[in-house]
Amino acid sequence: GMGGSLGILYDLYNSESINVKIGGTWRSQANIGYGSTPNSGIGTVLELYLPDRPESGNLGINFQFPTSWAFINLNLMAEKVLWSKAAGENQPLPDYTNYGIGSEWMFGLAESSSISLRAGYRQGNSNDTNELPDFQMLTAGIGYFFYSHHSIDLGYEYRDADFTNNTSSTLSISYSVQY
User: Fold this and answer.
1) How far apart are CA 22 and CA 43, in angstroms?
2) Rg of the Cα trace of the chain?
């Protein structure tokens, strides 16, 4: 299915010691459109149980602190995800409201390289606590940017549903070329 997004970023305040930006995005629901085949009906089964991409909207604020020894970012965000409109008939889902805070410290190394350290926290609140639990996520990462266009990134995410034993962890590594 087709979907769209719209975003805005505005420089709220700029000085030598702090820059403040605000922004927001809206993403439309995108109907995946699982097609059924007359022989198997597998698309019909998928459509009943798997959600489409939900409509969502978020707002954020970014504080940047350039210093002589590092470049520091601090981000705050709030997001509403409308899962109830995108869920399959047999798998109803509640909407979620998410809040997060993240920070990044970028340290310059040689002329065309830098290292970044990141940490964050995110709280997801189900609007129907009888259906799905709230969740908390802790994240950490380190990135190395080199030769002006290349970066390697290592990230870790720990997710806990309602501070129970229902936890998961993800470790990721990525390489990218940026022009």
Assistant:
1) 41
2) 20
CA–CA separation, 165 vs 156, rounded Å? 18
Q: How far is CA 113 from the centre of its chain?
A: 26
pLDDT given at position 42: 56
Q: What does the pLDDT average to over 108-129?
A: 88
Instruction: Find all residues with CB under 8 Å of 96, minimum gap 6, and list them.
Output: 80, 81, 83, 124, 125, 126, 127
Q: Residue 109's Cα: distance from chain center in Å?
A: 28
pTM of the model: 0.77
Q: Which amino acid is at 70?
A: A
Closest-CA residue to 79 (of 53, 98, 66, 92): 98
